[in-house]
């Protein structure tokens, strides 16, 4: 890599790290590309536009920056089950790639809060959905989980899937926020937090279903 290419690569990395932090701390819509360029130490306020294009392109680049490692972690978990897991095993395939990855990153991290911000934005959440659809390991994990819930009514399964998704996104983001602020957390480590989340989601999926009365 020549000097010019190396400088461009370093600039892109600086912009990605800075944008992720600012989006996590302040929200995606209130942070402008100009603000990101300035915070990343770029004299050219159009640096974000030059290297990434639109804000949507920048958000997608941040997601992809983390996706490869998380996909490998999930693939390892899925392969270890070899198609023969119970419900808790498949839930672990959904939870642990995030908590393990955040542990590996060390402190501080911003990706969990960034993801939560993106998922609350209707215009941007499709980016994460698109990346998820391209994940073979995630597809296999969801398929295995659904096999274990075969007796659950489809509408209840869909509803609890939404609940579980909210837990996975926002509980991880809340732990990351607490760590950044130095406030107490219910669990001492990311691994322990993952275990607690797996237990909670498994219990949620297996909870009794109250029959809907006619006219309700």
Automatic annotation (TrEMBL):
Name of a matching Pfam family: TetR_N
Domain of life, source organism: Bacteria
InterPro entries (UniProt xref): Homeodomain-like_sf, HTH-type_TetR-like_transc_reg, HTH_TetR
Domain HTH tetR-type, residue spans: 15-62
GO MF annotation terms: DNA-binding transcription factor activity; transcription cis-regulatory region binding
Keyword RNA-binding tagged: no
Protein name per Swiss-Prot or TrEMBL: DNA-binding transcriptional regulator, AcrR family
Taxonomic source organism: Amycolatopsis pretoriensis
